[in-house]
Every structure is written in structure tokens, then in C-alpha cells.
Design goal:
3 strands, 2 helices, three-stranded antiparallel β-sheet, about 90 residues, alpha+beta
């Protein structure tokens, strides 16, 4: 495991244990892509988030972060009430 991945793992683990959102800065030579996921319920959003993370990891992408599903308080109605995202280096 490269030093960059080890450091990233420690930062992600520390952030998750502390209950805070973790944003990792991409390496200078790597571009980061973010895939947003949505759901009408927290369960649907978490399911979509897990599926997206697994899909990209299985495709060989280096997952650099996962933003947990949170409630969207800006949009009225029942559609896309929760959102989260998966980040990986391209």
C-alpha cells in the first residue's frame, strides 16, 4: 500500500470515528471525480451510496472519500430529500 493510501486511510478512519465529514485533497497529479447519489428516504440514499461505492471500487477506482447521506432542507416535497456522494481519483 502506498504512503498516500495509508495516510488517506488514517485520515478517513479518524474522521469517521470523530463523526465529522472528511474531505481529502487529491494528489497534485490526480483529478478527483464526485458522484452524487439521491434518495427519497435515508434508507434509499444509503443503498444508492453503497451501490455506487461498490461499483466504482469493483471497477478499480481508488475511492478517496464517501460523504454520508444528509437531509436536503432546501427543496420542498418528497423527491430527493437525501443526498450523499462518492469520490475517487481518475
Amino acid at each position: 500500500m502506498s504512503l498516500r493510501k495509508k495516510i488517506g486511510s488514517v485520515v478517513v478512519a479518524a474522521g469517521l470515528l470523530g463523526g465529522v465529514s472528511v474531505a481529502l485533497a487529491p494528489a497534485a497529479n490526480a483529478a478527483t471525480h464526485r458522484q452524487m447519489v439521491y434518495g427519497s428516504t435515508l434508507y434509499e440514499c444509503q443503498n444508492s451510496l453503497n451501490n455506487a461505492a461498490n461499483t466504482y471500487a469493483n471497477a478499480g477506482k481508488d475511492i478517496t472519500g464517501v460523504d454520508s447521506c444528509v437531509k436536503n432542507t432546501q427543496t420542498a416535497g418528497g423527491f430527493n430529500n437525501y443526498y450523499g456522494s462518492v469520490l475517487w481519483d481518475i
